[in-house]
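Section 3.1: Structural characterization of target chains.
Under the original work plan, the team committed to producing a structural model for every single-chain target entering the pipeline before any wet-lab resources were allocated. The record below documents one such target. The sequence was received from the expression subgroup and is listed exactly as submitted; it comprises 127 residues.
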Amino acid sequence: QVRLAESGGGTVQAGCSLRLSCVASDASFYKYALGWFRQAPWKEREFVIVTSWTGDTTYYSDSVKGRFTISRDNAKNLGYLQMNNLKPEDTAVYYCAAKGPWGAVSTPPRADQYDFWGQGTQVTVSS
């Protein structure tokens, strides 16, 4: 069982940047594929970006490609979502998720493929 907790959300203006963090409770975090998903009001949860446990394979949603990046610091059990040039349509609750252990990633990524979830952090982008 891996517990995840996100932080770093907030309210920013369009064009600004935010970095979300995801801390895992277990040192086995490095074995898990890491994903970021988001859910806007009245919409289904959608994938944003996912990366395999090795970091060799990463998939980006078309809507964030070129603006968002994912990274991880396995020594600290941390994952990150760097969001640049934010747009009002990026407004949502953002969730980190883990798949595994030894989780591969496939395309298109689906939320039901991920085993563990954080509680979410709100990101609001004003125009």
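The two ends are 40 Å apart (CA to CA).
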